[in-house]
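re: ur question from earlier - yeah i can do the single chain one, its not a big deal. heres the input i used so u can compare w yours
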Amino acid sequence: MTRELEHCKVAILAVDGFEEVELTGPQQALIEAGAHVDVISSEPGEIQGFRHVDKGARVKVDRTFAQAKPDDYDAVVLPGGVINGDAIRLIPEAQAFVKSANAAHKPIAAICHGGWLPVSAGIVKGRTMTSWPSLQDDIRNAGGTWVDQRVVRDGNFVTSRKPDDLPAFNAELIACLTAAPKSGHAPRQSSTAHRWPKSIRIPI
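and the output i got, formated as C-alpha cells:
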C-alpha cells in the first residue's frame, strides 16, 4: 500500500442526507493513500448517510464548520445526496470554506449532487464540470460548462456524476493531490500560484 498522501489533510464537507458511498468511498481511498481525513459538518456528533432513498450508516463528525479552518487542509471533498447537497449549499460557513479553498487553488472534488455547493458559492463560472444530470442547468446558469463524463478535471476541480464513477473519481483526486502543494505550503492568491492543467477528461 502506497502512502503518497501521508502529509495531506483533506476535509469532507457533509450534513445529514449524504449518499453514503460517496463519502465513505473517497474517505477510505484517501486514508489508504496515507491522508488524514476530517469529516466537517454543522454540528458535532454523527451525520446520517443514505443509500439512495434508504437510510444507511451514520458517520462521525470530526470537526464543525466553526472549529475547522480551510487553511489547515490541502483539499475539499463534496459528497452528493439530494438532501445533503440541497442543505449544505445554504450554509454560509460551507460556502466560505470552498471559496477559501478555491482562492488558494486547492483541489475541490465534488460528486453527484455535491456540485450544488460550488454553484451556490459562486465559484463555477468558466469551469467545465460534470454531476448528477439534474444539476446541469444549475451549473450552466452559474456560468459553467456541463459535460456527461465519468470524471472531469478542470484546474483544481475534480467532478463525477454518480457512485458508479467512484473508482475514476478517487483516482483523479489522489492524482490531483499528489501533484499539489502540501498543507502549510499551498499558495494563496498569488501570481505564482500552482498552475493546474486546464482540463483533463476521462471519457466514458
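Confidence is low (pLDDT under 50) at residues 184-204. not sure if urs matches, ping me
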